[in-house]
Structures are given as C-alpha cells and as structure tokens.
Amino acid sequence: MKVFNQLVLASSVVSTAAFLNQPSKRFGLKTRTEQPPFFSYLSNLGGGELASTPQQNSGDLSATNDEVFKGRKLAPTGNAAQQQQRSFNGQAASDEKPGPASIITSTSNKVKVQGGSLKTWSFASPLIQRIHVVLKTEGRPLDADVSLWQGPDNTPCKMRIYVEDGATRPFSAVIETPRGPNTVQIRNTGQLEFPLDAHVLAEDGSQDSPLPAAKLNDLKGPPMTIQGGALRTYPFDPSVDSVQVLLKTDGRPLRSRIELLQGPNNNKQVVELYTEDGLDRPFFMVIETPGSGNVVRVVNSATVEFPLTAWVEPYSTGQASAPTEPVIGGDDGRGFGSGGFVRQW
Length: 345
What we know:
Structural class: alpha+beta
Number of helices: 5
Strand content: 25-35%
Strand order of the largest sheet: 1-8-3-6-14-11-16-9
Largest sheet: 8 strands, antiparallel
Helix content: 10-25%
Order of helices and strands: HHHHHEEEEEEEEEEEEEEEE
Distance between the termini: 73 Å
C-alpha cells in the first residue's frame, strides 16, 4: 500500500512539472509579435492607404501625418483645410469675395437719415455713369424710398424698399445715370425709432472699379423673359452668400417687384421698382442671402405689353452650413449623411 501511494505521488509531481513547462497558448489565439497598422478616420478625406507604422507620439499629430498617407499631409491649415472639407462635402471650392455693400461702406461717408426725414445727393457732372446706393441699419427694420431726379418734375427711376434686418441684409443697388445733372433722393419712411445709414458713391467709368456694376455683361447665366403679370422664382443653396439680380427691357418701361423669401411667405427683403427705360437704365442689385431656404422671386408688375428680361445668379459663395444646422425646405435629395463623415461608409 505504501508503494502504491508513492507511485501515485510521483506521477502527479511529474505531470505537474510537465504542465508548468508548456508555453502559454492564450486559449488557442495566435501570438502577434507586430502591432496592428495605425488607422485614422481622416483617410476618408484623402483616400490614401493605411500606414504600417503605428503612431509613436500621440501628442504631436503633425509628426505622423506624413507617415500615414505616404507623403500626404492629413491636417492642412488655412484655406487648404476649408477647400478640403468643402470638397469632401460635395461642394465646389468657395468663391468668397467682398460684396458691394462692404466695399461702398469702406470707401464712402456715412450719412444718418432719421425716421421721417429726407436727404439728397446732387451730381452736376454729366460724366457720371452710375450711382451705387447702400442702406443699412443697426439690426432694425428698414423702410425707405429712393428716387432719381433729372430735371424739374422728372423722376426716371424710383423704388420702395423694405428690409427686415438692415444689418444682416443691407440694401445694395445701382442706379444708372447716362446723362446729367442728377440728384438721388433717399427718404426714411420708418418711424423716428428706426434711423438708417446711407452710403452713396458715384462712378464715372474712367478707371477699373471693383464693384460688380462695372461688369454687367459678365453675367454667365442664361436670361429669362418674364411676361407682364407673371413671376419667376429662383431657389439657392445654403452655400450661396449673395445673389445678383439684373433686370432689363428692350426700351419699354420697367415695373417690377423683387422679393427675398426664407420660408413660406416670409419676406426678408422687398423692392418695388419703376424705371422709365429698362434699356437705358437697367436695374442691378446684390442681395445678401445668409442661412438656408433662400428663394428670390421676381414679379413683373406691368401689363402683358411690357415684358422684361431677368438674370438671377449667385454672386458670392462661401462655406456650406454645418450638418447640425436645420435646413428650411426639407431634404436636398442627396440622401442621409451626405454632408458628414458617414458619407464614405
């Protein structure tokens, strides 16, 4: 019996030693001696290949950007980053340029027009070809009448203006003055609590001007004929910062109504226009269109005998709205996640 017990004890010791000497198998998984390749979500932007070298210093991303994409940097800065992000979102490269309102306000003197008062600007020189008018407020509504006087009891151009917010959407238009002398009259039809700032700048055409009115023939879009009593609407993408509108006729009088809508029956800017000769005095204006859901509506207020020709197209485009910003008007047709990183999945 003692011999049997000694044999059992010896066999258990040998089996235990044999178990301890076996290498670890980690439950049948293969042992990996190399680290997995470093993965970056930024690869969706450039389409490059994953690097086989892991990131060594997580605190300095610029040290590993060149290693991740085989010489392509993943974190560009400045305009390159904005263009890369816009390219990923499916948008064209931004064509941001200063609007005529910002140019005129920086190059002309401001004149305060109190509610219920009237101011005039006279130009005796017949060399002046056009006059730029910009009306702004400090964020309050804007109601004004603008007229062009040429001689006694002669008003070849006049307009009625309403703007919901004169700081976000300043009024900017061009009045053609082919002959002189001319006088521009601006009347603030609002209450005393709603003053406005008027900027009036004359252009004689003797030198190159950065203002868009000097290049009216550069409009690329096709013209559209609007018959008397008819209307046309022009919806715009949220990436459009401003829209340029040009109205002309074949020499007949021009009577029109231009509206900026944002949402159903929500007028942000309204201009009621009359010009005695739409060929000699075409009307040009730039409308600021911040946000989404912007629609420009052009109405021919004249009778059927007086058609007009309209050009309405983007003037300046900027960065598209954020994916989390609500879009007025519903889906844009590109599908769920078309504006974010999930587009590549």
